[in-house]
Amino acid sequence: MISVIMANYNCEAFLASAIQSVLTQTTPALELILVDDGSSDRSVEIAQAIAEKDARLKVFSGTRYGGPAPVRNHALNQAKGDWIAIVDSDDLIRPDRLERMLNAAEDTGADILIDNLAVFQSDGPANIFTMFEGDLRDRPARIMESEYIKANMLYGRGSKLGYAKPLIRFSALEANSLRYNETMRIGEDYDLIVRLLSTGARMMSIPDVMYFYRKHGNSISHRLDAVALDALERTASEALRQPTPHAEVTAAHAARLKSIRRAVVFDKIVTALKRKDMVGAARLVGTDPSVLPLLRMPLMSRLQHRTGNPLTRPDVQLEAELAGLRALCEA
User: Fold this and answer.
1) Do 63 and 86 belong together in one domain?
2) What pLDDT does residue 125 have?
3) Which of 7, 58, 144, 209 has its CA 20 to 30 A from that of 133?
């Protein structure tokens, strides 16, 4: 059985469709564990109404956990499945996603399996772009620990595998007593996976686009502030200190820590510029000149917004598939 865990906080606008996309899966052996993080909207009411009609949905509410990591840990402690799947409460998945992922994981002996992910804007142009780049877009691949780390550099190029929503063999987590790091507000998925990989777990990817990641005004995964960056830097430093016989893993951890520290400087520069403290911003640039390319990002973002996001590759097939999925789940 697959235990799907879903963390929710004030996501009433999208929650019913996210739940529906899980409950309409072609694999019958699943449970959906939804843990609410003290929502003040109608989220719990919506979820409980669906649970009354479908016993596979189990709703836990009434506690303020303070972020996705502790919420997911509570869900993991309730899970009864052999596999764990992560689906966010504002996203959508294809009806055959879990069945196909389970088959691929069992065929390849994977402990962790990820699929490609399509990002779409909840409102505005129907532009869609996918997470995988290069060979990952074309064929199944094994993801080694160092490769996974290198695919999670802050403001880096290439595939951003930390955004993937994995299927995880539950026994691999249990055997190593692994849970989410509750000090992290973002990046908690990456942190869990990299710790699992360090135990020798086998990770595979398949190129199929079966997860649709919704970006909207209340999304938290793309927000980097000083508190979030501090947690990322702390966990990256801890990871670098862990002994490993693999030099490439150490090098990857060092590079990721450097990317986080650059992001910390960038965040401070942006804060200084907002205060019109040009001298302070210039001094910060002097501490890490590699931050200069990042200063062009806000301008580029404004240009993309103004011109309809020209850097997004149009995909008519994915747009049609998303439209059909939304019609199915939002009916």
Assistant:
1) yes
2) 56
3) 7
